[in-house]
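Weekend entry, working from home. Most of the wet-lab plans are on hold until the incubator is repaired, so I used the time to fold the two sequences that have been sitting in the queue since the last round of cloning. Logging both here for the record. First:
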Amino acid sequence: MINTAHVEPGGSALVLPLSDDVRLTKFSVGRMDNNCYLLQHDDGSSILIDAAAEPGRIARVLGDRGPDVVITTHRHQDHVGALAAVAESRRPRTVAGDDDVAAIERQTGVAGTEPVQQGDLVTAGGLRLEVISLVGHTPGSIALVLDDRVLFSGDSLFPGGPGKTAGPAEFAILMDHLTERVFDRFGDDVVVHPGHGDSTTIGTERPHLDEWRARGW
């Protein structure tokens, strides 16, 4: 059975070793129980996924160093609430899906965000994340995969189904992208860390793809 990597808003951070030299810290922030993910390499490099809220708490988890990069999975306000504060205090590179960059910059005032697309790589020291574009939850939603073993899915995939979409057309696009770019590619043991709530695996969710399409959400 998968460790669901459960964390509570305001609760303790969870540290998970991913390899001999990479560790993941997962913690929940804000009133919408947003997950923040901090990847750290033994060489001192680090990447933060979704500076969602509570910049003071994020700073405490970061400690005295980093992050080198902040990646925002999509434009929604609950995922960018601490981005300006982290960007100002830490001066990281900021990265987001190309079709969400303008909206993120308008909301946060953080300029110079690097746009990324399907297949791009985001690197910092020994850390290397591949970008997977999953259009539907927002036009520029992205997921990120580490070593074809760990997927950070933003709000595009959760235990029990895809993320919310604006209508049938967006839902169809998201399901197509999830099928082709995630489920057709990755094995059942790949761990999925979503933007909210507990983690899951590809194998746990795979049997339900037809069910999700049929219900339309």
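Second, folded right after the first finished:
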Amino acid sequence: MRPLIKLFAWALFLSALPLAINAESVSPQRVLWIETFDHEDIPNSIGTWEHNVLDSNQGIKIELVDQDAAGKKGGKSLALHFDVDSPNPAMVGCWIKLENQDLSAFDALHFSLKSRDGGYFRGSVAVQFTDSGYRKAAYLISQIKDEWKEYRIPLKKFPRISDWSGIQDFEIIIDDINAIPKEGTLLVDEIYLSSSIKAEAGPYR
């Protein structure tokens, strides 16, 4: 299958995914943190990709900013400066390496998102896991406003992954079909997994 056909097929797949709307906040009993972004510099475990690096009309840049979803003093979040406003098929992403992390004891993904452009991000972005067999499972997120909102996504909403014992990475993906507007900045923070199973040794951190 040619690259452009693959891209269109992927974008159509994303546009057909269910949306995480009005997700509930919970007080988890067991927690495994993926990222709080409270670093001096962006660690090597976080990076970006672009579908077509030769297309100057699409791209993504990331930086740590002094806005914290939990209101922690000195806390930070990750700004995703994205541009998929291209005459060509466009898709960009930010990845976090999980290094074959065992997530099988957890049942929900949590993270906070907001728009930094003083308005309502009317489109959708995808969050995606990759398992040890390099199978990918994505879920679309919408209703991203200019104030922090925590999303909670049950892991069963990622049915393409049946074995959570060796997860390779977590990604946030923005494409030209689902992004409205197609250029702007999103902030992400407080990414973690929770479980309703009470931890005998206390919560993970």
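Plan for Monday: verify the second prediction. The chain is about 5% helix and 40% strand.
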